[in-house]
Amino acid sequence: MNLFNLEGRVALITGGSGVLGWSMAKGLGQLGSKIVILGKSNVEERVGELQELGFETIGYTADVLDKTSLESCREAILQKWGRIDILINAAGGNKAGAVVQPDQELFDISVPDFQSVVKLNLEGSLLPCMVFGKVMAHQQKSGVILNISSMAAQLPLTRVLGYSAAKAAIDNFTKWLAVELANKYGEGLRVNALAPGFFIGKQNKSLLLNPDGSYTDRAKTILSQTPMNRFGEADELIGAVQWLCSDASKFVTGIVVPVDGGFSAFSGV
């Protein structure tokens, strides 16, 4: 019996057109899952890349903060494949105004930007859970939800105020939802979260890399606190995603799994 077999299951990834979301989608496709990519841009390109790898994939341009848009996607998915078994909430992001820059103080924070970051990362996970999780709870009595947390939730990072607050809320929401769904709909519904450590992407590239490609002082500080002494690669999330989304973790719900090169284990001493 192959506990990692996802043949016949439908996996939906919000933010699936991003680097990390696309990598997670690829990992589930490797186990036989049908893939649905939701994103705000580059959706067709990402769908094409997954199809070239031999994965059955569809995609929709959608806003995770627009419930009506998500509901339209849900109906299209159900019409095509009849079910939704896995939801990964990989959509998220940050804004400069929600970060205390080196020459700023807390009092300079943009409240609208702070609210926007919390809304995107928290409500942008809540609404997909409401829309797509309803299928799992009411029609199937089974399904897996995987939220994306961050090291910024467990060990708040200097300067990064809005994002840290939002991801801390994701940790709490994940545990709350795991209990809520199991209590009301049974053991077939599970909710967990993945907490990536430091990966270099579009959003943080300028913070971690100088124009010449060398590490910034902030990057060097991060690496000094990471026992593996390097940044993560997107594909290194795949193993944890495959475990949490498959029957290999059938008795696992309500946890946050770090994939961080040891960052969360290191006291700095």
Topology of this structure?
Layout: E1 10-14, H1 19-29, E2 34-39, H2 43-52, E3 57-61, H3 67-81, E4 86-89, H4 111-140, E5 143-148, H5 151-154, H6 161-185, E6 189-196, H7 205-208, H8 217-224, H9 238-245, E7 256-259
Parallel strand pairs: 1-2, 1-4, 2-3, 4-5, 5-6, 6-7
Tell me, briefly, the overall form: globular
CATH fold description of the largest domain: Rossmann fold
Order of helices and strands: EHEHEHEHEHHEHHHE
Multimeric organization: single chain
Strand order of the largest sheet: 3-2-1-4-5-6-7
End-to-end span in angstroms?
44 Å
> What's the main sheet like?
7 strands, parallel
Number of strands: 7
Return residue spans where pLDDT drops below 50 for at least 5 consecutive residues. Answer: none
State mean pLDDT (0 to 100 scale).
95
Strand content bin: 5-15%
CATH superfamily of the largest domain, please?
A: NAD(P)-binding Rossmann-like Domain
Structurally, the number of domains stands at: 2
Helix content: 40-55%
CATH architecture assignment name of the largest domain: 3-Layer(aba) Sandwich
Output the radius of gyration. 18 Å
Compact overview of the structure:
By secondary structure, the chain is an alpha/beta fold. Helices cover 43% and strands 14% of the residues. The protein has helices at 19-29, 43-52, 67-81, 111-140, 151-154, 161-185, 205-208, 217-224, 238-245; strands spanning 10-14, 34-39, 57-61, 86-89, 143-148, 189-196, 256-259.
